[in-house]
């Protein structure tokens, strides 16, 4: 089983989203015990934004002839890696109520007409084979539950972007309130672990 993990925090392995995704991978490994598992990590913070050539290609009625260059070549590689993955894991913080710019850049590269979706009279239709997507989110504040004090534009946007490509099986886990002090951080971590155990019946 091939797992593609997107790492979207600038804090790297020190981030809460990375920590939660590590625990998620442990649950996946136990669920699929006996199955060879390969995890490919990709740091979305290494991506540049799409360029003019990419923008012109998307606006054209067909893909350009010749070898792709610039952002188009990067997009081809990222889409190929996504197609090869049996499972997608996204480890991301919430920045200003939504996805961080690094994750948005990955989405801009892979959510691509004629490659991961086509346009029909009824709208955009995903062309990727559906597969499980697990999202590990960390947030300094609370965005879910009765004590939430900030809006959540991350999960609905991410679900819609993934669904546009055909990825419907999206499960979100979270560690919220990480900026509220050590004691509440530990409680947030425990809550995230409880979400994982409940989903994986562990």
From TrEMBL:
Flavodoxin-like fold domain segment(s): 1-199
Pfam family, one: Flavodoxin_2
Similarity comment text for this entry: Belongs to the azoreductase type 1 family.
Keywords: Flavoprotein, FMN, NAD, Oxidoreductase
Protein name: FMN dependent NADH:quinone oxidoreductase
Assembly notes: Homodimer.
GO MF annotation terms: electron transfer activity; FMN binding; oxidoreductase activity, acting on NAD(P)H as acceptor; oxidoreductase activity, acting on NAD(P)H, quinone or similar compound as acceptor
InterPro entries assigned to the protein according to its UniProt record, in alphabetical order: Flavodoxin_fold (IPR003680), Flavoprotein-like_sf (IPR029039), FMN-dep_NADH:Q_OxRdtase_AzoR1 (IPR050104), NADH:quinone_OxRdtase_FMN_depd (IPR023048)
Binding site for FMN: 9, 15-17, 138-141
Originating gene: azoR
Catalytic reactions of this protein: N,N-dimethyl-1,4-phenylenediamine + anthranilate + 2 NAD(+) = 2-(4-dimethylaminophenyl)diazenylbenzoate + 2 NADH + 2 H(+); 2 a quinone + NADH + H(+) = 2 a 1,4-benzosemiquinone + NAD(+)
Function per UniProt: Also exhibits azoreductase activity. Catalyzes the reductive cleavage of the azo bond in aromatic azo compounds to the corresponding amines. Quinone reductase that provides resistance to thiol-specific stress caused by electrophilic quinones.
Cofactor remark from the record: Binds 1 FMN per subunit.
Presence of keyword NAD: yes
Cofactor: FMN
Cited HAMAP family: Azoreductase_type1 (MF_01216)
The protein's Enzyme Commission number: 1.6.5.-, 1.7.1.17
């Amino acid at each position: 089983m091939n797992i593609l993990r997107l790492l979207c925090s600038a804090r790297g392995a020190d981030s809460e989203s990375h920590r939660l995704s590590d625990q998620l991978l442990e649950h996946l490994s136990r669920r699929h015990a006996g199955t060879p598992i390969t995890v490919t990590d990709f740091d979305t913070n290494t991506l540049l934004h799409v360029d003019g050539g990419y923008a012109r290609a998307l606006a054209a009625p067909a893909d350009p002839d010749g070898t792709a260059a610039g952002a188009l070549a990067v997009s081809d590689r990222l889409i190929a890696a996504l197609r090869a993955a049996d499972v997608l894991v996204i480890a991301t913080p919430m920045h200003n109520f939504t996805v961080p710019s690094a994750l948005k850049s990955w989405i801009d590269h892979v959510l691509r007409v004629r490659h991961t979706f086509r346009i029909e009279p009824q709208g955009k239709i995903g062309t990727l084979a559906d597969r499980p997507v697990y999202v590990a989110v960390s947030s300094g504040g609370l965005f879910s539950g009765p004590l939430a004090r900030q809006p959540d534009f991350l999960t609905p946007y991410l679900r819609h972007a993934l669904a546009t490509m055909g990825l419907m099986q999206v499960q979100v886990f979270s560690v919220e309130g990480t900026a509220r002090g050590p004691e509440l951080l530990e409680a947030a971590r425990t809550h995230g672990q409880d979400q994982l155990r409940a989903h994986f019946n562990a």
